[in-house]
Amino acid sequence: MARCNTLSDRRAIFFTLFEDRIRREFQTQSADTMSTIVTAVSHILLPIPERPSILLCLASSDAKETGARIVRGIASAVMSAFQKPSYNVDKVTLNCSEYASTAEFWKFYEDTSERMRRDKVVVLKDFEKINAQVATALCHLADDTYAPFPQSIIIACLDIGNRFDSSNLKRQAPVTLAETFLEEKWEYFLDRVALTELLGRLTGRAVLIEREIPLRRRPGSLPSITGYLGPPPKLRRRRQIARSEMHI
Questions:
Q1: Mean pLDDT of 211-233
Q2: Enclosing domain of residue 201
Q3: How many structural domains is the chain composed of?
């Protein structure tokens, strides 16, 4: 049987999974959030992307669990699109609390690079805990001129706690929230040039995750996302992918 290995196949798999397992599952999220997620992943589905995508997912304390579920769903859909069934989301997740010292710069660089190369996606959990100097490694990994693994996505999960009240969360753009939060954390550890460059890399595609109120699951509805999603249950006719091609 033919394998789903073309650009159109990858897009079909990702967008089918996105519609069925993310957009439908998380209906509280704004249209801007969903659009930004799609844009970030679409970039790495190009034949020859120039650089990796960085998706920065902000969540306040009450939305952190929702954010984790959405990020797992995105990572699983990307791995499915690139035929990575032997790895689960846990294996592409790095806990940033383990990179809280400047001595961890190269370890972080190597750990992140390995997952970008191997799995096309890396999830940075608890990104607010990473050392500022260590975080600058992302400027090299997502460099405009030479990015070592351009066909990959970095998903950073940022817990903003209760830093912003509900009014600011509604009024300010996610990019502004991210810049404010990270600048306050890092301004004493990086010079202005380094900080500006890092924030520019990180916050371009920032989304604010809203707390999702769980709905009672109806009989026959899709299961919750856990790890690798596997091939989608069906591909829509308009995407022109036959069932016989779904042996990934």
A1: 57
A2: 7-212
A3: 1
